[in-house]
Structures are given as C-alpha cells and as structure tokens.
Phosphatase
Amino acid sequence: MTPAELRAHLLAARLAGVVGTTREESLRSYRLFAARDPRLLIGLEPERVWGERELLALMADRCGVSADSAHTFGHDVIDPGRTLAALDALAERLAVAAERGGPVLFGTGHPHRLLGFYAVLADALSAAGCAVLTPAQGRCVDITTRFGLRTYNLDYVRGVGLVRGATAERPGGEPGAHTHSPLPVRTALAAAADAGGPLPELVIGDHGWVCGAGQLGFEAVGPADVNDPAPFVGEAEGAVSLVVPLDDGVRSDHYLPLARYVLNRACLSQ
C-alpha cells in the first residue's frame, strides 16, 4: 500500500477518522486517569500531575481529538495523518531492531483484535534474525477484574504474549482474554531476568504490555485508542518510546494492511 491507499483504508475501516470510540468514553477515561485510577494507569506511574484539561490537550496533540472540553457527545476522531506518521516511525524502529538482531517481546491485551497484527510483525523480525521471546509460558497471573480476582495463564500464540482463563481449554477459535493489566508483561520480564536469559531490546504491544514494559525501562512501542491516555502520557514523559493512535476495536483483519505497510517501509520480509 502507498501512504494514500493506507490512509483510505484507515478511514474506510474506521481505524482513524471518525472512530467507534465515543467522546463520552474518552472523557470518562481522562477523568479516571487524572484521579490516578489503576484501571487507566495500566502500569504507568506518571511523573507529573495530569489534570483533565492537560490530558485533553495532550490527546488533541497526539491523536487529533477535539480540544474543546464543551464537546462531550458523539464519536471521537483520530487524525489519519498522525496515524500514518506513527506507523512510519514504527517501521523505522523495526528496521533498527532487525539490523541489531536483538531479542524482542510481543504482547497484547486485545488478542481478539490485534493478535494477527503482532504475529505478522513477529514472523518478520524472527526471519530477520531477532529472537522472539516467550518467557514464563504457562505461568499463573492473578488479575483483579470487575468480577473480582481471577487467575489466568500466560501463553504465547505465534510469538505473541496473551493470557487465558486458567480453567479454560485451548480451542482453536479462542485466542485469549481481554485485559489491560500490566501484570502479564511484569511476569514475563521477571521470569526472563530470573532465568538469566536474554531480556528484550524492544517490547511491542498495547495497554499494560507497552505501559508496564516502558515503566520498567524497556523500549516499548505499540498502538493505543483515544480512550486510553496512559500510553500517550508515557510517550510524552519518555517512558514509552512510540504510540500509534488508532481504534483498537475494529475487525482483526483490518489491522493486517497496517502490518504489511510497516514491514514494507522497514524493508522486512512478510
């Protein structure tokens, strides 16, 4: 895809432009983040105080949402130009990672949507000589949910970390559980360190994976929606290296052209 063709795809699939995320969802998330709600911090420990106005200004700058606090209803907006620029920057980082040949770690809290996107990138970096790490596979992770404390198992599918219900079987159609928790990536990184094995030079993921890894000092990159301010705050403060603004709730196949575009820009095999 050319940049123009990808821009058209972003708009048609509602990955950017007018997206499925509502303005009400976004503003509620900013309020909760400003109150330091752990559900919105997702592993990040902000260095400064972020009020709702500061967060709205940041998200307007990084994503292109309306900076007008009086705009409180309707669907939110992501500037496709910002998404394209961030995808180009992601391609540059992947090219550097491939040139170095260092170990990488992938993980997602949205496996139903983003697993295929990361798997394509993982395959390409593996083919380029990077070790795709899978530390702590099968390890139990206790995560607090709205239903109480639940135990999950850390698993990897095509090199991409995710969690599954501890009592669930592994049917082919069940890619994993939805979570924003940083505990999976903390568990993976701690296990890698304890084993004395290689640590990732780059972590690629979303939500708790990118914020949790960035907070621990690892280079971390990945996508984020406009109702998830934590990665963008992390990027602004230097904990997260790069965030790609896009809607993280569309059909999984809509993300594959983005992966192919990034690999083409990085001159990596698909």
Remarks:
- The chain has ten helices and nine strands.
- Strands lie at 17-22, 75-78, 104-107, 140-145, 148-157, 160-165, 202-205, 220-224, 242-245.
